[in-house]
Amino acid sequence: MANQVEKKLRPSQFDLLQNETFLLLSTYSHEQASPMVNAISWVYAVDDSTLVFAVHHRSVIVENILQSPSVVLTLIDDESTYSIKGHASVLTKEMTGLPLKLAKVQVEITEVRDVMFYGAKISKGPDYDKTYDPKAAARLDLQVMEHLKSHE
Questions:
Q1: Is 29 exposed, middle or buried (0-12, 13-18, 19+ CB in 10 A)?
Q2: Across 13-132, where does the E strand assignment appear?
Q3: Which NCBIfam families does the annotation name (predicted)?
Q4: Do 102 and 95 touch, CB atoms closer than 8 A?
Q5: DSSP β-ladder status, 102-114 and 50-56
Q6: Domains defined along the chain, listed by start
Q7: For residue 16, what is the enclosing H or E element?
Q8: The pTM is what?
């Protein structure tokens, strides 16, 4: 059975990406001449074919995208695993009004592929807890997500 391939997010994926959620981001590192994977959570679906996310402005992710804009985000949803392929661009290297220096990156989605291996389903999604001050974490998360949702 072939895995399902779409050109845009499904409604459940779009809904999940209206709030902070866990994803894996794959970029290509020219410095190391290899792919690299990072976990991110400040991701927002602008619409069913566009994502934006925030990372520290000095993250290697920013440099990787500037050199090679093809990216893949891995998302767990609806008992499966999805590969979201797209073309990334750095919208700004430093969003204003935040306590951290964060870059805002946009991804134009070119493909959403169900990549779960045959005969299996995800029975429990990835859960995580912030390990620093919960109130500070909640305040920062809210600020960053509001910036991602804005058209700045």
A1: middle
A2: 23-29, 34-40, 43-47, 50-56, 70-77, 80-92, 102-114
A3: PRK06733.1 (NF005232)
A4: yes
A5: antiparallel
A6: 5-149 (2.30.110.10)
A7: helix 11-16
A8: 0.93
pLDDT at 65 over 50: yes
The rounded distance, in Å, linking the Cα atoms of 17 and 148 is 11
Provide the mean pLDDT of the chain.
94
List 64's β-bridge partners, or say none: none
Cα 106 from Cα 69, distance rounded (Å): 10
pLDDT in tens, 85-132: 999 999 999 999 999 999 999 999 999 999 999 999 999 888 888 888
Sign of CA dihedral 15, 17, 18, 21: positive
